[in-house]
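Z., the sequence and structure:
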Amino acid sequence: MNFENKTVVITGSANGIGRGLAEAYAASGARVILSDFNEEQGSLAAHSLTEQGLKAVFIPCDVRKEEGIKRLMAEAVQHGGSIDILINNAGVSRWKSPYELSVEDWDDVMNTNARSCFLATREAALYMKKSGAGGAVVNISSTRSIMSEPNSEAYAASKGAIVALSHAMAISLGPDRIRVNCISPGWIETGSYDNLRSEDHKQHPAGRVGVPADIAKACFYFTDPDNDFVTGAHLVVDGGMTRKMIYEP
């Protein structure tokens, strides 16, 4: 898909899935605004794209802070002229027993993962509405929004909140031609397949562990201007794992 002359803001894009999304959108012709709490890695990610002749700029942001998000969106418009697409990808996790999970841990996960999606979408939507052209938002949740492992309460709650927030904002922002959708990735390997066992791939009905490009393709679908009938949707991209019945041998 061609996103020439589109400005795309991606939070949490210094590493992992976010960086993969930034690379994919930049390669498709978009002006990419990378943002992350990690300034060193974020700057390196943007520099690697500009070295290839692609359009990218890094703006640091702590998505736990409302003023930081407001500043990010204002600077994104200064650099790109508009905000056409927002990908809310920033996130953290705390794998602690519910007996040990502190209120501070809970609040940090919820504020980073869920509240930031609301704040970033609200602030980006103000510019999208003002332009009259509308836009598209994709919130990155997780299959942990619909299934769990032990000691994942804060993470699961935050990701479930993202799914619900996505369809709520799709309804609220629809009249302004702003579409909001949600993706729940499963196991996405952001390192090297060389570190995986054959069993890791075989347990997936699709026959392999996912890669960031799989999530990028889903984002492309949701943010393509031609797909203006798709909003409020929740797409699970996990190689079929959440549909697989598992019994003890």
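The first helix runs from residue 16 to 27. The chain has a mean pLDDT of 97.

Let me know what you think.
H.
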